[in-house]
Write a structure and sequence with these properties.
The chain is mostly beta strands. The chain is built from no helices and four strands. It has a domain of 44 residues. It is 0% helix and 35% strand.
Length: 72
């Protein structure tokens, strides 16, 4: 559930969906539209995670990531 203080930042017609839980500090999302997946950094765990739109699965994309901060 999204904390109510974020309501002012969300468009009324937009929805919010949780893709992954179990991390402390995630950063640097990067969407790859052609292949329909999302990468983001899990900095304290020194890895990059990947979410697949078609299956909904989340898996480790790269470990060690050298604590990468962003994925542009």
């Amino acid at each position: 559930m999204l904390h109510p203080r974020f309501n002012a930042l969300r468009l009324p017609s937009a929805s919010v969906e949780c893709l992954y839980q179990g991390a402390r500090w995630l950063e640097g999302p990067r969407w790859f539209g052609d292949d329909r997946y999302l990468l983001w950094s899990d900095i304290p765990n020194d890895r990059i995670l990947r979410w697949d739109e078609e299956s909904g699965d989340v898996r480790v994309f790269r470990k060690s990531s050298n604590n990468v901060n962003g994925n542009t």
